[in-house]
Design a protein that fits this description.
By secondary structure, the chain is α/β, with parallel strands linked by helices. It contains ten helices and 14 strands. Strands 3-4-5-6-7-8-9 form a seven-stranded mixed sheet, with helices on one face. The chain has a five-stranded mixed sheet with strand order 10-11-12-13-14. The structure holds zinc ion.
Length: about 300
């Protein structure tokens, strides 16, 4: 089981259970790529991202990342709270059953869930946006989504609830509240539509660029259209100014390692410009390896 030692899985508390519980796929687990000294396969990346059922629904200790952005998600599903004087923004409701978990984390940080005025998301998969209707029901937040992603979002209807969308966004659009502006970047490929968010924050008199990556994990079968989209998305993400990189799964930015350094370090471990493209490097290497395999078939 050499792959167990790869992909930082040993950092997780129940690494063996994760591999057993991660969504099983029938597909053989290849190709393998080694990036920055770690070996990854499609199933290891999936296991790293999703963890076990318990990981998906258990709150990770809520914490300030930097400036006015906070982590309020679970161990393996990210949810970010951006606090402004005119109300707050939530990115990713995750699964509907996690909404009370996120609500509790928001309260633990001393904020009110009902102060969420805008709800954004990374992409139309249930693990990121199934809870949108419930968040809107509890907060009255305006739900904004990339126009191209709306049909897929509308198909996510937990308990038959209509998926709310109040504003359709387009590539490069901005979302502003209380002096904070987020820019939506269309970065498809993992699914046909996906959003990477950028914003600037201030901390200790300095300004930092934050990039919240949407997943760039390639699908197992690459069509020419998906390959074009991924190639473009890799270029877009690499071009974004970045001091702090986050992702729709915490494993995409090594949350556990950085969080462990949070108290010990005098400097903020989330400020890591050199690490901003590590996740992109992993996914781009996997993309090329899958493409090579497909060409050989
Ligand atoms: Zn996804």
């Amino acid at each position: 089981m050499k792959p167990l030692h790869a992909a930082g899985l040993l950092l997780l508390p129940i690494s063996a259970a994760i591999l057993l519980n991660a969504q099983p796929t029938q597909a053989p687990d290849h190709p393998a790529v080694t990036v920055h000294g770690q070996t990854y396969t499609p199933q290891l990346i999936l296991a790293r991202n999703m963890g076990s059922d318990v990981d998906q629904t258990t709150a990770f200790p809520p914490h300030k990342i930097a400036g006015n952005i906070y982590y309020v998600g679970t161990r393996t599903l990210s949810s970010f709270l951006i606090v402004t004087p005119q109300g707050n923004i939530l990115i990713d409701s995750t699964y509907e059953r996690n909404v009370p978990v996120i609500e509790k984390s928001v309260q633990q940080l001393g904020f009110k869930f009902s102060d969420i005025k805008i709800l954004l998301g990374s992409h139309a998969h249930g693990d990121h946006q199934e809870g949108d209707a419930l968040v809107k029901q509890k907060t009255g937040a305006q739900v904004m989504a990339m126009a191209e992603d709306i049909p897929a979002l509308k198909a996510i209807k937990p308990g038959g609830k209509e998926h709310p969308v109040d504003r359709a966004l387009h590539d490069g659009d901005s979302v502003s509240l209380g002096g904070t502006t987020l820019i939506a970047h269309l970065t498809p490929g993992h699914i046909r539509r996906c959003t990477t968010w950028t914003m600037k924050i201030k901390e200790g008199g300095k300004s930092y660029n934050i990039v919240i990556n949407g997943s760039l994990r390639p699908p197992t079968v690459l069509t020419p259209a998906i390959s074009d989209e991924l190639n473009r998305s890799f270029r877009v993400v690499r071009s974004l100014p970045c001091d702090i990189q986050l992702g729709d799964h915490p494993a995409q930015y090594n949350l556990q390692t950085k969080f462990a350094k949070l108290k010990a370090n005098a400097t903020n471990p989330f400020v890591d410009p050199a690490g901003c493209n590590v996740e992109t490097d992993i996914q781009e290497a996997m993309f090329h390896a899958i493409l090579d395999e497909q060409k050989r078939e």
